[in-house]
Amino acid sequence: MDFSLTDEQKMVQQTVRDFVKRELFPLEGDVLRNEREGRPGIEPAKIRELQRKAREMGFWGINTPEEYGGANLGPLMTAVVSMELARTFVPFAFGGNADNILYYCNEEQKQRYLIPTINGERRSCFALTEPGAGSDAANIQMRAIQDGDDWILNGEKVFITNGNEADFAMVFAVTDAEKGAHGGVTCFLVDRDMGWRSTYIHTMGEWGPASLYFENVRVPSKNILGKLNGGFNLGMQWIGAGRWVIACRAVGVAERALQMAIDYSHTRVTFGKPIADRQAIQWMIADSHVEIEATRWLALYAAWLAEQKQDNRHASSIAKLHGSNMVNHVIDRVLQIHGGMGYTKELPVERWYREVRLWRIFEGTDEIQRFIISRNLLRGHVKVGEAL
Ligand SMILES: Cc1cc2nc3c(=O)[nH]c(=O)nc-3n(C[C@H](O)[C@H](O)[C@H](O)COP(=O)(O)OP(=O)(O)OC[C@H]3O[C@@H](n4cnc5c(N)ncnc54)[C@H](O)[C@@H]3O)c2cc1C
């Protein structure tokens, strides 16, 4: 068994680490100040400039096949890169990526949706959740009724990330009411100018999703993504792809924050001694590191399974459940170690505290991950002790 990265993988890791330190860390003060004053943390033009710089270093389309100009680094390197990028809270991502399910576009759709999304000219959003169907996504009610060669969409989507910014949505609607999620849901590519509206939802984080409203929105049949009535599986594929990446991001955030707490504990003196000398603080540091390391290997294992083209759904749920809870525990301890300073907006700790709370909710809540893990075990799809 070999736990080490290859020389090439280490080089990629170091390059991203350097990029984050050189280009993104210096922006952190501005991001905190801008957000405190109600502005976006970083301007879109600045993001594009950084994406251009990253592209010159080869970081463009890290999951995008070479035929579309991407670096296509694969799941393991995506894991490593995600951990590195998450060390900063500057809201930045490398360019050149598209949602995994957009690769189901036919040739004509590729020109209109996939390729412009990869190139950053168009912005997508994934619209599955509805006011009455979140965890229970199979219960979506949005209807699409056929009218000649078009479909008429009616209904509401909620909590849609990028829903207020996107110019097209991947919308999941019931096209066969009897079958519902069992072969009666279709995914449509719906341009904003076909008539849907959105409203921004304010959240406890520094960004918000949107509600999407569809009132007799007419969508041509040629905008069906994949197969008619084949949409539910696409939706599950989209959600499944992100789970282990959340665990990777949890590692990056928690490591950076823990290092801040370690540094602070050496300099903060109470009752004549640095707080680092107190067992109460040492145990918080030790427990945090143990939990971070556990998530690292769970996340890398899920990524490794994907790299081997093996089913990683069980491992992804474990990594997501552990990672999203771990990062919440760690940030809470880091805030505690910083005392009153941790609670201020001078430091990013309270920002992380608010941001990572979401990670226990989206892309499958804690309870849904537990449901999936226990169902796999109880039904015998996965056997205890057979991970290797
Ligand atoms: C900021 C944000 C961004 C999001 N982005 C997107 C997006 O881009 N696209 C999209 O489609 N959706 C998105 N979502 C929706 C997200 O996926 C759902 O919020 C999530 O799946 C939970 O659904 P819900 O909010 O309806 O909660 P519910 O499903 O109503 O759950 C409420 C509570 O009950 C628990 N629960 C539910 N069922 C069970 C059960 N069977 N057993 C035990 N406990 C249960 C849940 O775990 C939770 O604690 C986003 C949400 C947020 C907050």
From TrEMBL:
Where does the Acyl-CoA oxidase/dehydrogenase middle domain lie?
125-205
Q: Which cofactor does it need?
A: FAD
PROSITE patterns per the UniProt record, alphabetical: ACYL_COA_DH_2 (PS00073)
Q: Where is the Acyl-CoA dehydrogenase/oxidase N-terminal domain?
A: 6-121
Q: Where is the Acyl-CoA dehydrogenase/oxidase C-terminal domain?
A: 229-378
Q: Which UniProt keywords apply?
A: FAD, Flavoprotein, Oxidoreductase
The family note in this entry says: Belongs to the acyl-CoA dehydrogenase family.
The entry's protein name is Medium-chain specific acyl-CoA dehydrogenase, mitochondrial
- As recorded in Swiss-Prot or TrEMBL, the protein's gene is named acd
